Amino acid sequence: MNRFSLAALLSGALFGLGLAASGMTDARRVLGFLDLFGDFDPTLAFVLGGAVVTTVVLFRLVLRRGRPVLASRFRLSSLRHVDGRLLGGAAIFGIGWGLAGYCPGPALAGLGVGSAEALWFVPAMLAGMFLHRVVSRS
Length: 138
What we know:
Elements: H1 3-22, H2 27-34, H3 43-63, H4 84-100, H5 104-112, H6 116-137
């Protein structure tokens, strides 16, 4: 295993551990956060807030390095405008997240903890990714 694969494996494992520790592999918790007028669960707001604070504090520090530890340069998006593809993708993502209580990261971590919801969500997600690829090529 090369150092890039090892770094990816360790990063993914740390991300999955964080999702599991915060309870975000439980789709009911996410759906509770989205249910503003029902059984509201604010836990996800704290998880999201922690992620935003960490990013705000560390992003500029990391970029001061000049280059990543395991690459020759940073690969940041050059997009500076909002277009239909971005809005459409965000809408589809949000609708799926609201219906299932999962997005890709927690769904994959949910497989690791044996979540029944993840067992049906991940194949549906993969089918959607495949369909997008087929439609995008034509």
